[in-house]
């Protein structure tokens, strides 16, 4: 059995994966056709997938405009969730935490409950059909004047906690809206006993990760820029904080310059897991990510097994 077959056969766990960044292009095309605006498949892919000359995270985030515009009905949210878990099951993923921001799906009058229940329904359907398990992470969003929406997201996460929802997150333009400005989210999460991860150390540096640790995060989304601060790396190691590393996405958003530091971070003893971030926007999948690691580092298949075990032990 060659290495690609071994990677495929391996039972995999994914902790960092965005629903709206992982829509099937043909599904998007069918949704557009139902609006009377079919479009050419290649053009649709261009709207959904980041180009090779992507400049930064803010440019990367532009690829979410069309998916979010289309994910405004219960049917579309349910279908998207089901199809993503179906795709994962076919890659021998046996557990995945999929995240999305309910506040981005209110444009056609859906309530927070309708949005979350639609995604849970798609997840349940996939679990009933395939040997896969999973949960949803609800994202609060960085931005101005959205405190009310973020508080509503926390409230709905509490309502569905243990019923398809397992945690909350903070996502969005990290460089424009520093992590330190959102302490209120995690103070409330602590009071309500809601687990959380935080996007940090992607487009913003070590200070963002420090804020996430101060708030009590047990996992960090990306966290790749910890490499810039050795003392911070020691803290991550000693506190056993897991980094949800997304190699292809980080390279596309130019989160780090020079050699990608996964190997150095892993060898330092920090807990690492490998993830896809956005299957469609990054034009990747978990098997491609594992192969990318093996082809561009000195890490081995046994290291991948260990990283996957890290992920299994860090599920919410």
Summarize the model shown.
With 316 residues, the chain is an alpha/beta fold.
Explain how this protein is built:
By secondary structure, this protein is of the alpha/beta class. It contains 15 helices and eight strands. The strands form two sheets. The protein has a four-stranded parallel beta sheet. It has a four-stranded parallel beta sheet with strand order 5-6-7-8. Helix 2 crosses helix 3, helix 6 packs parallel to helix 7 and helix 8 packs parallel to helix 9. The longest helix is centred in the middle third of the chain and has 18 residues. The protein is globular, with a radius of gyration of 18 Å.
List descriptors:
alpha/beta; 15 helices; about 325 residues; 4-stranded parallel sheet
Helix content: 40-55%
**Could you give the order of strands across the largest sheet?**
1-2-3-4
Main beta-sheet annotation? 4 strands, parallel
Quote the average pLDDT.
Answer: 94
**Spatial shape:** globular
Strand residues, percent: 5-15%
Structure annotation, total helices: 15
SSE arrangement, N to C: HEHHHHHEHEHEHEHEHEHHEHH
Radius of gyration: 18 Å
N→C terminal distance:
33 Å
Secondary-structure-based class equals: alpha/beta
- Poorly predicted residue ranges: none
Number of strands: 8
């Amino acid at each position: 059995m060659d290495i690609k077959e071994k990677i495929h056969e391996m039972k995999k766990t994914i902790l960092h994966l965005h629903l709206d960044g992982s829509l099937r292009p043909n599904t998007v095309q069918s949704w557009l056709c139902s609006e009377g605006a079919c479009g050419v498949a290649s053009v649709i892919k261009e709207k959904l997938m980041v180009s090779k000359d992507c400049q930064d995270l803010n440019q990367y985030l532009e690829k979410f405009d069309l998916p979010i515009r289309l994910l405004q009905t219960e049917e579309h949210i349910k279908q998207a969730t089901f199809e993503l878990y179906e795709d994962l099951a076919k890659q021998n993923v046996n557990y995945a935490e999929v995240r999305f921001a309910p506040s981005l799906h209110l444009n056609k009058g859906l309530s927070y409950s309708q949005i979350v229940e639609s995604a849970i329904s798609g997840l349940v359907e996939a679990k009933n059909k395939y040997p896969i398990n999973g949960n949803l992470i609800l994202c609060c969003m960085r931005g101005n004047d959205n405190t009310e929406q973020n508080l509503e997201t926390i409230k709905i996460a509490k309502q569905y906690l243990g019923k398809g929802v397992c945690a909350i997150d903070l996502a969005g333009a990290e460089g424009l809206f520093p992590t330190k400005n959102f302490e209120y989210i995690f103070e409330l999460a602590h009071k309500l006993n809601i687990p959380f991860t935080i996007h940090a150390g992607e487009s913003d540096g070590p200070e963002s990760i420090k804020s996430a640790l101060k708030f009590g995060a047990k996992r960090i989304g990306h966290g790749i820029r910890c490499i810039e601060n050795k003392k911070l790396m020691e803290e991550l190691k000693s506190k056993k904080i897991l980094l949800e590393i997304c190699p292809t996405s980080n390279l596309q958003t130019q989160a780090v310059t020079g050699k990608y530091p996964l190997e150095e971070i892993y060898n330092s003893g920090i807990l690492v897991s490998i993830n896809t971030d956005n299957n469609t926007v990054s034009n990747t999948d978990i098997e491609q990510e594992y192969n990318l690691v093996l082809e561009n580092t000195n890490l081995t298949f046994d290291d991948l097994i260990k990283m996957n075990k890290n992920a299994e032990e860090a599920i919410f």
